[in-house]
Amino acid sequence: MQPIRYPIDALVELGRVRLDESNLDDMLRRIAELAKEGIDGAKEVSVTLVRGQANWTVAFTADLAREMDEWQYSHQRGPCLDASASGDTISVPDTAAEQRWPAWAARARAAGVGSSLSIGLPIQRSVVGGLNVYGASADAFDPSSIATARGFAAYAAVALANAHLYENAATLAAQMQEAMRNRAVIEQAKGIIMGARRSSPEEAFALLSKISQDTNRKVHDVAAALVDQAVRR
Fold first, then answer.
1. What percent of the chain has pLDDT above 90?
2. Does pTM top 0.70 for this prediction?
């Protein structure tokens, strides 16, 4: 299989992954794999997501990339965090000469990382991220590699945003379906109470609420127990 070399090829590959058949983790893992294959000089790749004060590596091609990220999270400083926050491209041409994050650079050098490239991924207002590319040697990423990585990151950000939106929409749909099922059970229980006590809908729901409070159970659970009891009768 020929390695993927250009962002447009990566986009084609990403387009083959159906969002309704892949979860967000699968999509992120595929993005990391494509970046490793497509960016000249890449040894390992990771994807960082940032939500509020929480930072985590959601995909990586090897433990080396994850460890490089997690050092930054624990110390709250480093190129991938700065790239995620700013949306910029941050290059570390030589970890032996890096002065902005000397402690991280020393850790990276000891682990066999000679250079790195972090590209911010603006996904949504509340979620940002970064594509982190680690090279084995100093100056692993020439201008052409950096341009390719930027182009790929732009496509990856779109795929990420779409996957994130799809997952949120699927979760919301599931929650709405569950709410509708709960509502149906509660309405059935109200009907049972209204028939037995000749009460109004408001009085029936008030009784369900009181039982819920007295027994420290959810209204839905109280209603479901009442309906189940009625069915058994």
1. 33
2. no
- Point out which residues pair with 119 in neighbouring strands: 89, 131
Q: Using CA atoms, how far apart are residues 196 and 134, in angstroms rounded to an integer?
A: 71
Structural tokens at position 221 = 């659970």
Residue count of the chain, please give it. 233
Identify whether residues 167 and 184 lie together within a single domain: no
**Structure confidence by residue, pLDDT tens digits, 25-50:** 777 788 888 888 888 899 999 998 88
d(CA 87, CA 58): 18
| 159 & 116 share domain | yes
Q: Which helix (H) or strand (E) holds 89?
A: strand 89-92
Cα angle 8-25-59, degrees, rounded to a multiple of 5: 75
Distance CA 46, CA 106 (A): 19
What distance in Å separates the CA atoms of residue 107 and residue 20, rounded to the nearest whole number? 40
Residue 62 has pLDDT above 70, yes or no: yes
3-state DSSP call for residue 195? Answer: helix
Q: How far apart are CA 119 and CA 110, in angstroms?
A: 23
Cα–Cα distance measured from residue 88 to residue 184, given in angstroms and rounded to the nearest whole number: 50
125, 150, 171 - which closes a domain: 171
**Contact assessment for residue 104 and residue 82, using Cβ atoms and an 8 Å cutoff:** no
Count structural domains, the chain: 2
**DSSP code string of 168-183:** HHHHHHHHHHHHHHHH
